[in-house]
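Q: I have 365 residues here and want to know how they pack in 3D. Can you give me a structure?
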Amino acid sequence: MSVIFFFACLSFSYADSLVREYYVSLNKCAFRAEDFLSAGDYFSALEMYEQSRGIYEKENNDLGVLFCLVRMGWLKRELGEYAEALALLRKAHPIGVRLHGDAAEIDSSLGDVYMFSGDPGKAKKHYHQALDTLKHFEFKTSYSSVPGHKEMFNMFRKCKAIIHARDSLGVLHYFSAEFEQALEHLKLAGALIEKIRRVKNNPDYNDYFKLNYDIYNGIGYCETLTGAVYGELGQFDKARQHFSTGQEAFKEGKRFYGELFNKSLELRTEFKYPDMEIDSKKIKEYEDFLGDADKLGATEIIWRFCYEAGKELIKEKKYPRARAYLARAIDALELTRSRLREDTIKKTFAASVQDVYSEMINLLF
């Protein structure tokens, strides 16, 4: 989940050649990587970021190297390659501290890797470390003069880290059924997003500020998680409204993984509807959704949804179909586990997903 990920930023209208969170000019490979990323082609994007990183290293451009490491770490996390994601982000962290005085945005990303690899304790540690590092930061909604480039980019980076950490803590509390705590973090993320929108909509500033895909990503995750929490609380009308707003934000920002994440939690919420029944029409909807997730390589989304669908089908006594979905969940888990290189991560991940295997064993009995 990423929670990824990435999250709220703004962009200077006259600085389109610069990356939003780092004050670095993009080389040709980086531009191509960004295009592939926007199109949802993660594998091509990774190849281009690696080439871009090599160019930056030859130029001794540490900001460019940092940018590529963070982008690649995020993509590896999205693809479930957690060991490689950790290696990239750990390499990025000291560079971020050296260049900026903190690496809060990297701590938030490290938190995601630990969360999705089954270690919520370490995930929380990194999220809270990001928030604690930036506890004195406040996004201003009024300015006496236009901020300089470096000031703007540093502000974007900090906004991203805060909203990212808040949204991801919302994810952790949601999956732990701690719904009030989840809402607390999501409301704080929403408050910062609202401040950013207020500046963007201010006629004195809107020539300089505009929303980009990062802020839409932040809105998408915040709204989606809020909808999921309200669904768990039985407030289905509120849930639908937030899911719809989240889906619109992801579409506007062209965040394909976010769209799948939104859809997976909306479908999961439907299992709680009093008159819910998984008929042939619903199965077709599930298969189309899982097909899209397969194309993107979103193993985290696949196993979580198939597990929830399998449990619901067991309740409806549709055992062969339940077995098929649980088997699909296990296949996705095994694929993820095969990509883990560190023994500690492998053990932690395996321990965190035992419920899926237990559900299949009980069904087979």
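Q: Anything worth noting?
A: The chain has a mean pLDDT of 87. Strands lie at 10-12, 209-211.
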